[in-house]
Structure formats: C-alpha cells, structure tokens
Amino acid sequence: MGFMDLSETVEIFVQPGEEILQSELINGLQEVSAEELSSSIDQDDAESELLLHFLVSLKEQKQKHSSKLVEDVRCLDTDIEEVGRRNCSKKHLLHSCLENDFINERQHASEHKEPSRLEALSQVSPVFQTNNIRLMSNISQLESAYFSMRSKVQLAETDAATRQDKDLLRNHENRDLAREDKETLNTTDCLGSFFDGLCKYARYSKFEVRGLLRTGDFNNSANVICSLSFDRDADYFAAAGVSKKIKIFEYNSLFNDSVDIHYPAIEMSNESKLSCICWNSYIKSYLASTGYDGAVKLWDVSTGQVVFRYNEHEKRAWSVDFSQVHPTKLASGSDDCSVKLWSINEKNSISTIRNIANVCCVQFSSHSSHLLAFGTFVGLSVANGYIACGSETNEVYAYHRSLPMPITSHKFGSMDPISGKETDDDNGQFVSSVCWRGQSDMVVAANSTCPVIQGLQLAELLLTSLGEANSDSRYQL
User: Fold this and answer.
1) I need a surface site. Which of 124, 200, 287, 371 has the fewest CB within 10 A?
2) pLDDT digit string (tens) for 198-242?
3) Which of 81, 108, 125 is the C-terminal boundary of a domain?
4) What is the pTM (predicted TM-score) of this model?
C-alpha cells in the first residue's frame, strides 16, 4: 500500500473550491449587483434630468415674467410721463382761469357769492383719499383692465404699422391713406378713455332708496313685475308682469311719503301674462308689449286701447324694443327662435331673423335703425355707459362698461307678507326688472315680491363729491 503525496491531496481539495467560486450562483449575484448598480445610476440620471428640466423651465418662466414686468413698467413709465405732461398743460390752463376768476370775483364780489374754483379744488384731496381706498381694494381688476387696454393700444400700433408698410409697397398712391390712418391712430386717446372710465366708476359710491311703490293688492301673490319702462319725457313709468296688467304710475308721486297707497294713473288689461314693455321714444302715447301667448301689441296709453296686434310669433314672445332713430320701427324676440321686425304702419312683419336658440332680449342700436342686438339674456338696462342688472340674490347691481367689477349693489329688504315687517330671510326672492330713468342717475327696480311690500323701489346712485369737483378733469386728461 503506497502513500499519497500531500501536495496532490491539497490540490484535490483546492480545485473544488475554485469551482464553487466560479459557480453560477456567485456569477449570478455579481450580475444582479451590476444590474442594480446600473439601474441606480440610470435612476439618478433620470432624477437629475427631471430636476434640470424643472430648473430650466422655471428659469424660462421667470425670464418671461421678468420680460413682461419690464414691459409693464415701461408702459407705466410712459403713461406716468404722459399724465404728468397733460397735468402741466392743465395746470397752466387752470392758472390762467384762476387769474381770470380772481379778476372777475373782485369786480363782481357783491353780486357773486359762489366759491372760487381754487376753493373748490382745495376740497378735492379728502375725496381722492376716500376713492383711492375704493380703487386700491379693486387693484387686481383695475390692473387687468389697464393692461388689457394697453395691449389693445400696442396691437393697434402694430397693425397700423404693418398696414402702412403694405400700403406703401403696394401703391404709392396709398400714402395719403396711410398718413390718414396714422393720424387717426394718434388722435385715439386710449389712456384718456381709460381715465374717463375710471372717473365714471369712482363718480358713484352707493345706491340710496328714494321711494317705494305701495299698492292695495298686497294679498295677490301674482304680482311679479317682469318689465319696467319710462315714457318719452320720463314723467311716467309703466310696470307689467304676470298680473296680465300694464299699470302706468306718475314718477313724482313716489316721493310723497304721506301717500299710503299709490293708484295707477292708467291700467290696461291683457289676455296673457306680460313679459316685456317698451315706451316709444318719440310718440309719447305709444307703448309696445309682448306676452306669454306670443302676441306683440301696440297700445295707445292715452286711450288705454290696443292699436295693433301682431300674431306671427309661434311661441312666447320675450322682448320688444322701439328704434330710437326710426320710432315707427320695432323688433321682438321669441321662444320660436326668431326676431321679428315690425312697422307701426304695416299689418305684417317687415322682416324675420332666424336664430338657433330662444331669443330673450332684443335691442336696436341707439345710432342706427339697421343695427340690432339680440341674445338669450334678460333683466339688464344701460344708460350713458352705466349698466344696471338684477340678480337671483335679490340685489340690484351697477357697473360701468369700462371696468369688470360692480360699482355698488343694493339688496332688497324682505318683508313678511302677513305682518309687513322686514326679515333677514329673502325667501328665494330675486330682482326681476331694472330700468334707468333716461340719461340720469336714477334707476327703478322691481323684485319678485308684491309691489306693496318691496316689488318696486326707486334707487339713486348717490353722486360723490369726486364726480362734482373733478367733472372737468375727466375730459382734460
């Protein structure tokens, strides 16, 4: 029996160890570890790319904002300089006027006791402070309106420049036309228009109730007033609605607090509920109406009789309006998706405009009998750029067309129909109709309760001293 060499024995035991180290298990662990490391690196790269993209995007956004701010500041600087320039011219004119006033006042001191223009101007500062608080509380909306105006100015300038270049390249004869366009652009005072709108907004501060219509039919629940209209001279106003009656009231009688019940001067009955009435702006006795039965009627208020009845609408007629330029023409809108044009001298409609939806309002342009607006909205009245409208919150709102926020609002008080006392609960009431009294600061409004309680209120936009003291400045800027 021979003896084995120990070195060989060692080799025999070492060789299997190398096989274990090179086994698939160990190699697999190494491969997994490498994959995990590679995946971790890829994930870190992705996160880094995401972070980089975020930072780059944020930088680009801030750069855009910065450029926009620079442009906004440039516009503000330009307009501040322009206002300063205009104020210098205005102060020079004012100085000359004050000198003339001083001379005239010394010559007529015994006859004229009114305060001088200088004294009037000395009272402006407190008013400006009060209105400045109002304006600053709406700074965001004012800022939006200002820069919206500014963007239109820049767009107009760009379009004018482009148009001018094309005209000059196209034909040398168009130089005069381009020059006229440029002059027209220069005379368009957008800054002055914005300032004028701002002053008109600040001119009024609140609604003040001036009168309440009291009638004897307070127990009648069907007294919702759907429409109001003043006559040509604004001496009378008409109210009509679901009661199927048109009632004519004298305007000044509502200011008499000693009257317990206001009786209509004239009352005219209709076959159906009334949706709209409109007084003719030229023929004082003519009043038009539309009803739930689709009929359009022309009434003679002096006799209380129907002069014409038009029956072409197939469904409820919502709105009617006389043309101010051509008072023998009127238009009506209906649920039958049509606008009918009428003449008080014709028995049938003179034209029809088809629409894809119900027509709830229709109104002629105040400057043309050929321009007409219509839509699907009710309960709005406009005068001198001021807009009054009702709401389902039982409030009357006043706006100026140049700015998006309301000037003021007035909430109708709620009355208990039994006790007649005012309550905090509006019981789902809403303002059903509003109407300006001509070109004035008076508006008549009706809500959904019966007239004796709160159905008809006269409200006045209270004129602040800012509007009085600075009435001239609105046109000098």
Assistant:
1) 371
2) 888 888 888 888 888 877 654 455 678 889 999 999 999 999 999
3) 81
4) 0.67
